[in-house]
Amino acid sequence: MIYGMILTEHNLLSRQEQHNGVVDFAEKNGLKIDSFLSYRDMPDIGRVKQGDSVVFYAWSCVGKTRLQLKKVIGYLLENKINFYSATGKYNAATGADFNQLSHAFDLYEDIRFNFISDKNQGAIKRRIARGKTIGRCP
pTM score > 0.70 for this model? Predict the structure, then answer.
C-alpha cells in the first residue's frame, strides 16, 4: 500500500498543491498512490504498516514542529516503512538512520533560531541608533 501524505494546515501550500506534487512525484517514479493521509496531529499515520510506503510533498508537510516531524519520521523508521520526499528527493532506502535525521533537524532548528536572534538584535540596535525607546516607555 502506498500512501500520499497531506498536511491540512500548511502555511504556504494548499492541500491541492501538496496533492499534485505527491501525485507528480509518484508518476515520475513508477509509484501508484493507493490512498491519501491528511492529518493535523498525526492520527492517520497509525494506519501505515510495515511494508507500506509514504510519499509526502516536503519536510514541512510532515509536521508543523520539529517534534511532530521527529515523531512521524521516527514512527516510519521504527516500523520499516519506506518514505519519500517529493521536493527533497529523499528516499528512506538511502540508509540514513533516525539519529542522523534527528541531528540534522536539531542543527536546522539551531541555525534557524540563531538567524532569527541575529535579525532581531540587528533591528534593536538600529532602533536604538535612531534614538527610539526600547521596551516600556517611561
Answer: no
